[in-house]
Specification:
There is one protein chain. The protein contains twelve helices and seven strands. The protein is of the alpha/beta class. The chain has a five-stranded mixed beta sheet. It has a two-stranded antiparallel ribbon with strand order 6-7. Helix 10 packs across helix 11 (281-292) and helix 11 runs antiparallel to helix 12. It is globular.
Length: 327
Amino acid sequence: MQFFIGIDVSKDKLDLGWLRDLTSNKKKTKVFKNHSAELTRVSDWILKNTKSGPQDILVTVEPTGVYHEALLYHLHECGFQVFLPNAALVKAFMQSLGTVHKTDKSDAIILARYGAQKPDRQLWQPEAPEIRELKAMMRRLDALEKDHQRELNRLEASEITGTSERVLQSLKDMIAVLEQEIRNLQQDIDDHIDRHPPLRNNRQLLQSITGVGPGVSREMVSMLTAKAFRSAKQAANYVGVIPRIQESGKFIGCSRLSKEGPARLRAKLYMAAIVAKQHNPLIKQHYERLLANGKNKMQAIGAAMRKLVHLCYGVVKNQEKFQLQPL
């Protein structure tokens, strides 16, 4: 017999929902603090109430930034079956149930029900330590780059408004510090990749694609190594470069990027696509064909970004360098 648990995750707490009976919808809930010291209590509560071994219990966990990660590793180490679903699919499932009242407790039960009705679910597996380290450094780099851009914006505004020299100097000093730390962290990331042959090899494969430079290759190494994508389309969907049709009134057949997933990667892919449409013959041909077919420049750039993701997925999956086929 299999038991189904759902856990709604927030920064401060974990809402557990045990779906005791799929037919009658009998349930039991419990709330714990989202703190490392509480995780043992979480697993003990599940085992005590279900009176079963962890191998017979499926725990469906809501993905929430980084706040679910410690919980996932703890549950996996205890021997539970762990399912980390796509948040968008869970949302669609909730809407299909016609849920009126939305609470953390009800979300936990719905997560349990979603896990129960997904026979083709792919159980979560922990990442290798080098992947976790790479992801942590990439998150920190993203934060530093955002801080850097904010300080640049403040400096520009201050120069326009004629603020005091002391404030201007403070901004310039902070920008210099951030730029140095960004360079240091980028070097540490590159060194980390070089120390691990699979990461180093994937980066070399990615950089064989014209248009994929250091920034994009760092991001794609992290993403493609950490995520078990089943297809290039799935990878592109994760990045948010899949076209989404928008039609309303006179606007017929208008498509825009879905823009789901990591914005920082899309920003880097945008610049890579600008380069690739000029210097990568395959991307250039794809871009010009779309323009000739009536697409506007932004739609063609979006398609170039998507093509780059497909190429990146292909070289890593096949473990072969990019080779331009005769046009």
